[in-house]
Amino acid sequence: MRGPGLRGAAGLLAVLLAVSLAGCTDSGGEGEDGLTIGLLLPSRAVPRWEKSDKPLIEKRVKELCPDCTVVYANAENDAASQRQQMTSMITRGVSALILDVVDPKALRSSVRAAQREGTPVLAYDRLAEGPISGFVSFDGAQVGRLQGQGLLAGMGARADGGGVVMMNGDPSSPNAAWYEGGARAVLQDEVRILKSYNTLGWRTENAHDHMSAAISDLGPSQIDGVLAANDSIAAGVISALKSARVSPLPPVTGQDADLDAVQRIVKGEQYMTVYKPFRLETEAAAAMAVALARGNDVDALVTTKVDSPTTEDVPAVLLTPTAVTRETIGRTLVRDGVYTLDQICTPKLRPACDRAGLTR
Question: Over the range 167-176, which residues count as b (16 or more CB within 10 Å of their CB) and which as e?
């Protein structure tokens, strides 16, 4: 699956302006009673969906449209379940759908069914196929580039020809190839990629099994770094390395800035993660979904256009991710209110936090 073809530039300032304007669009408009927005998220394997995206989207929809109702379903990483959930929401007559697709090809017919019923579909975080009305995500190629650059920095002198294991995401997700492409563009002329695995379901246990196999096949001394596509995968990688008594641990990347990953970074077990300000993504999605539910276009809310394998010029918002290392936790995640110092720095981690400069 190829990544989206980017046309134009996505600007964070423009996104913030767009989201603020969305609150003024048709506010108090006639006929809002009964508007329902369906929210379809892909899994619980990645903590962000239930802990961040769902509550933030629900909150912002209510702020923009007090009479709107959000109905929610989680597919548990099963495309057949997501098809059923989407059919149910279309049947009950939702006004718009926010779809974080499990498998774009498998859900293509459902997106077409929504179009036939006059239900606009907003692709969220992952680019769905079929006649979607908009797309909100982060620049996946830049996510991969940040991971690749972070891994090289963590490897230090070993970045010159060192051996790397790649732990990619679930191949059914279009973002997995997007991230991998960005990472390979950085790594390909610098290191030797010894093994490359796809992690079904982005599951920690699958990553653990792959990493254990890599250690067995290569020997720990050959592994100078691990490109892990997200923090759930990084957790499995690090668990396998520790089980094999690999010391010191090679640098391991991540993505999503999960709390346990941030704590691993503080302890020195994980080298970096990629922070994607979910509030910006959820606010942009809520604004677009409310506009679509009201029958409005989203031209004033988008910053670029992308191409999917089935549809050209999809109106889109692509946000900018940020790399986070131990040195930058305070001025990124803590400053933005993602976590407090007390959440990160448990009593057991207090000495490591002090060493990292995470003090009150």
Answer: bbbbebbbbb
Partners of 30 in the β-ladder: none
Compute the distance between CA of residue 156 and CA of residue 269 in angstroms, rounded to an integer: 16
Per DSSP, the three-state class of 86 is helix
Pairing of strands 192-198, 69-74: unpaired
- How far is it, in rounded angstroms, from Cα 29 to Cα 25? 9
| Pick from 268, 304, 291, 243: nearest CA to 27 | 291
Note the pLDDT tens digit of each residue in 305-357: 999 999 999 999 999 999 999 999 999 999 999 999 999 999 999 999 999 99
For the record, the structure tokens of 117 come out as 């019923």
pLDDT for the residue numbered 18: 40
> What is the pLDDT averaged over residues 267-283?
96
Task: Identify which of 71, 222, 96, 247 has the alpha carbon closest to the alpha carbon of residue 158.
Answer: 222
Residue 9 has pLDDT above 60, yes or no: no
Q: Residue 8 contacts by C-beta under 8 Å, 6 or more apart in sequence?
A: 303, 304, 305
pLDDT digits (tens, 9 = 90+) for 161-175: 999 999 999 998 889
Q: Cβ of 27: how many Cβ atoms within 10 Å?
A: 12
Q: Which residues touch 251 (CB under 8 Å, ≥6 apart)? A: 150, 151, 154, 155, 225, 226, 271, 272
Q: How far is Cα 147 from Cα 355, in angstroms, rounded to an integer?
A: 24
Query: What is the reported pLDDT for 24?
Result: 31
Q: What is the DSSP string of 277-309?
A: -HHHHHHHHHHHHHHHHTT---GGG-SEEEE-S
Helices and strands, counts by H and E, the chain: 14, 13
